[in-house]
Amino acid sequence: MPKRERKIPIQIYLNEDEDYILTQKQKVSGMKSKSSFLRHLILYGYVYDIDYSELCEYNAALGKIGNNLNQIAKRINATGSVYEADVKEVKELMKKVWHTQKSMLSRQLLIKQ
Fold first, then answer.
1. DSSP three-state, residue 103
2. What is the rounded distance in angstroms from the CA atom of residue 62 to the CA atom of residue 93?
């Protein structure tokens, strides 16, 4: 028999509707068991699901921008001169970064309210 970290059992009684609601909330939370779901509720008072898809898209966009900046830096280092087109491209890339950040921050404010 495996050694348990949690040794105190708690038993509760639910009707069918309450059990259905608990099961649905546990599934939506992404937690594997009702026990872990209830434990989280007891410790933190709430359980919520966070969608990180926008953050993943943002990181991918930043990666592409960083790659473009590295290519420009290599070209500058190889030639020893700065081209007007490179300066324009860097400015455009920075506008994209700021626009994306503003967009994400404005969505965060809507989520928190």
1. helix
2. 9
Judge whether residue 13 has pLDDT over 90. yes
Give a three-class secondary structure readout of 50-91: CCCHHHHHHHHHHHHHHHHHHHHHHHHHHHCCCCHHHHHHHH
The confidence score (pLDDT) of residue 110 equals 52
Tokens of 25: 């909330």
Residue 77 CA, chain-centre distance (Å), reads 36
Indicate the average pLDDT of the chain: 83
Gap between the Cα atoms of 53 and 94, Å rounded: 22
